[in-house]
Amino acid sequence: MNRPAAVEIVYECMRFLITHNPTNATLNKFTEELKKFEVNTLVRVCDATYDKAPVEKEGIQVLVNFLISNIG
């Protein structure tokens, strides 16, 4: 299955990488993509579709059940 390419957004001193949600079958490729963009924190904003342990093993912190509120 083809997935959309990751999109990087830069705002002031912050960088955001918008990606698809991987599966365990596509996790290696996904992790390589994160490393290419030097990601150090991954914020999960959808239901878990993969095991976060391999991502954390690569030194990337995974935040789960993250809600954005009071923006404005």
* Main structural class: alpha+beta
**Radius of gyration from the CA trace?**
13 Å
What share of residues are in beta strands?
15-25%
Helix share of residues?
10-25%
Main sheet overview: 2 strands, antiparallel
Estimate nothing, just give the exact number of structural domains. 1
DSSP summary: helix tally: 2
Task: Find the CATH topology.
Answer: Protein-Tyrosine Phosphatase, Chain A
Number of strands: 4
> What is the CATH architecture assignment?
Alpha-Beta Complex
InterPro entries: Prot-tyrosine_phosphatase-like
Protein name: Protein tyrosine phosphatase 4A2b
Organism: Oreochromis niloticus (Nile tilapia)
What can you tell me about this protein's structure?
With 72 residues, the chain is an alpha+beta fold. It has one domain (7-63): Protein tyrosine phosphatase superfamily (Protein-Tyrosine Phosphatase, Chain A, Alpha-Beta Complex). It has two helices and four strands; from the N terminus they run E-E-H-E-H-E. The protein has a two-stranded antiparallel sheet with strand order 1-2. A two-stranded parallel sheet has the order 3-4. The longest helix has 10 residues, at 27-36. The termini are far apart. The relative contact order is 0.18.
